[in-house]
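sorry to bug you again but im stuck and you know this stuff better than me. what follows is a protein written twice so to speak, once as letters and once as structure tokens for the fold. mainly i need to know what kind of three dimensional shape the backbone takes. anything you notice is useful, everything is just below:
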Amino acid sequence: MSGPARDSASEQDLQTVLDRMADGFFALDADWTVTYANEEGRRILRTAMSDDAVGPEGAVEGCHLWDSIPGSEGTEFYDQYHRAMATQEPVSFDSYSEPLDTWFEARAFPADSGLSVYLRDITERRNLEQRQQESLRAIQRLYAVSSDHDRTFEEKVEAILTLGCEYLDVPNGFLTRIEDGIQHVEVSHAEHPLLQPGETCPLDEAYCKRTIERDELLTVVNASEEGWAGDPAHETFGLETYIGGRVEVDGERYGTLCFAATTPRGEPFTDTQRTFVELLTRWVSYELERQRAAARLERERDRLDEFASVVSHDLRNPLTTARGRVDLLAEECDSEHIEPVERSLSRMETLIEDLLTLAREGDAVDDPGPVDLVALATDAWKTTDSGSGTLRTAVDELDILADEARLRQLLENLFRNAVEHGGENVTITVGPLLDGSGFYVADDGTGIPEAEREQVFETGFTTDPEGTGFGLNIVAEIADAHGWSVRVVESEEGGAQFEVTGVEPA
């Protein structure tokens, strides 16, 4: 094949390849006149150009690019193409074309004779990126709302319903409670008059009737076309768009969390949007469960306080009378039965004190302050019935964050336990743990068998017939209230060593 014929065939092959490209391509000469465009390039240019600029049969070749496209000057396409021609360097950029309502990835390659331009439609990718960013912002806002301790549950729910409406682009979001066949709107962010807080309706007339029957979300994007026409719910509320999930508390049905509009949606809910609604539904379920548990705990605490009050009043009075009578009896005679009675009365007094302490030591420590553990231990030792025991401190001072009064009770109970179980002349040492995680209280007594070290913190566990079994349980309660952990190991001297960890330094 001769040279010109071969060149003509090669040019024809190139044009065939370019026409088959999914991307748009067009070439410009140095005067910005279109010299060639593939099929997609012609479609893009024709759409952007004014009708009177396009040639016969939609031809764009021979058209001046900037004169043919209204408002093209000052766009990023204009600036970038001119920069490429001026610098003779390729440019690559993403930009939005308003006339085409399309995002393009553009690449322009300059030459002395003009410019070659490739355009790829990236609108779908851009929309996906935008939806992902919106989803991320929605999740971040959800976290901010759910972790805001200054808001009540109702305020949090209203905030997440507002957030959900914005994210899903619907005007109505609501939380319902279903009881005895009636739907109650508990909290809402809604325009619909029947979806305001306090509104009720028979469950048979609510969209939620189908929602609670499903293990997954119920979604509707065009109710009239999806078989809802004539349904009592559609007749009552007129909702065309709906997405809702079942709310459960402790495995039992509570109600639903829903978002809706009276206009059709036009497109299905995305997987990300469905996941977001499921996340909201689970959060509400968790919060309701937490509320129920807190209320149950509060009731138990009230009963415990009532019990403690009864113990304090109804047992202290006869105990005081009995102790007074024993003192009088001791003055009148020297009976061998008096001392056992006194011991029993003392044990009852200790039991009462321990029970009262347990009743109030379960509350969390919300505002700990700096405390010198060594100074507090020294002071607590003075008020402990130490017998022939000795207190030793491993350091001069140890500042930690704690509730001073409750920490003192913890130390007093550990001291009392060491004196009662450590034998005569027991030595107790208080000091910091080597890893800096907390402190220890150790003794050189007989120690605690390894098999019993987990049990010693249980309520009522004791190996001493005269013991109450509450002392170390109180220690565990106080540690837990601070967010600490406590365990018992063998001390260097073979006795018991109680280690309290998770302690913050002051």
